[in-house]
Design goal:
With 278 residues, the chain is α/β, with parallel strands linked by helices. It has ten helices and ten strands. It has two domains: 65 residues, Chemotaxis Receptor Methyltransferase Cher, domain 1 (Orthogonal Bundle); 201 residues, Rossmann fold (3-Layer(aba) Sandwich), CATH 3.40.50. The chain is globular.
């Protein structure tokens, strides 16, 4: 690793409090070089000097560039269709058998809120309102979380939604659409760093972490997926991005339910014992 580049990564991590060690070196270089190009710098040494003398504003710009996410409601429709038609009915059936109406989900790397609000819409459409629904939505980017809490989106971000769904869950405003308050109440937003912090909660029924781990090193993936395993209830679901894979070593902890949709289900330690002893 180039010494000046390494110094930039270490400096940003130390000053911002955002641990960048989990990101692939090639990805970090591309994002840093993008900022350098915008500012007209040719070398990492020049950019490092600029960072040290221009304080928090450029550091914040760089962090936003590194963690930026482009998303929309029901992004890649088919995982959400699978969630509604297969996962949610199965979860609901198990809950009814034990007399519970509590449903708990986590959107890890929620960006500007499209995914957790999409999860809420899916639950309401598939199961109705007779459930105690909690959706934890986390991201490392505070600006994205501010947008998510506001819940205001442009027409392009809603392109995957039918008009009847838009009318049901959004209020039309002059320049876009705003999430209705009754939907907002199901989602709790929080800043969270997957690579360094503990899971936001436990006993979760399903976790969405889509197109997030592609930026992580193998070591960080292992940490994050282990956290997901610990946070899920037995037979809880993990949905990841279609270009992503689970780290080696998790075959005895998750069973693949849908390879196409990248849906995995937690294998409980009791279930594992049954497999081993059979």
């Amino acid at each position: 690793m180039d010494l000046a580049f390494k110094s930039i990564v270490n400096y940003i991590s130390r000053v911002s409090g955002v641990d960048l060690s989990g990101y692939r070196e090639s990805y970090l270089k591309r994002r840093i070089e993008l900022r350098m190009k915008i500012l007209g710098f040719q070398t990492f040494e020049q950019y490092l000097r600029y960072l040290r003398y221009n304080g928090s504003s450029e550091i914040r710009q760089l962090i936003d560039t590194i963690t930026i996410n482009v998303t929309e409601f029901m992004r890649d429709k088919t995982p959400f269709i699978y969630f509604m038609k297969v996962i949610l009915p199965e979860i609901a059936e198990r809950k009814r058998k034990v007399g519970s109406n509590i449903l708990r989900f986590w959107s890890a790397g929620c960006s500007c809120g499209e995914e957790p609000y999409s999860i809420a819409i899916c639950v309401l459409e598939a199961l109705g309102k007779d459930w105690n629904i909690s959706i934890y939505a986390t991201d490392i980017d505070e600006k994205c979380l501010e947008v998510a809490k506001e819940g205001f989106y442009g027409k392009e971000q809603l392109k995957n939604l039918r008009m009847d769904i838009i009318k049901k869950y959004f209020d039309k405003e002059d320049e876009g659409y705003k999430i209705k308050n009754f939907l907002k109440k199901y989602v709790r937003f929080k800043r969270h760093d997957l690579t360094t912090e503990k899971p936001v909660s436990k006993y979760l029924d399903a976790i969405f972490c889509r197109n997030v781990m592609i930026y992580f090193s193998e070591k960080q993936k292992i940490k994050v997926v282990q956290d997901f395993y610990d946070a899920l209830i037995d037979k809880g679901y993990l949905i990841i991005g279609k270009s992503e894979t689970l780290p080696i070593g998790f075959k005895d902890k998750f069973e693949c339910i849908s390879l196409r949709e990248k849906v995995y289900r937690k294998i409980s330690s009791k279930g594992l014992d049954n497999i081993i002893n059979s």
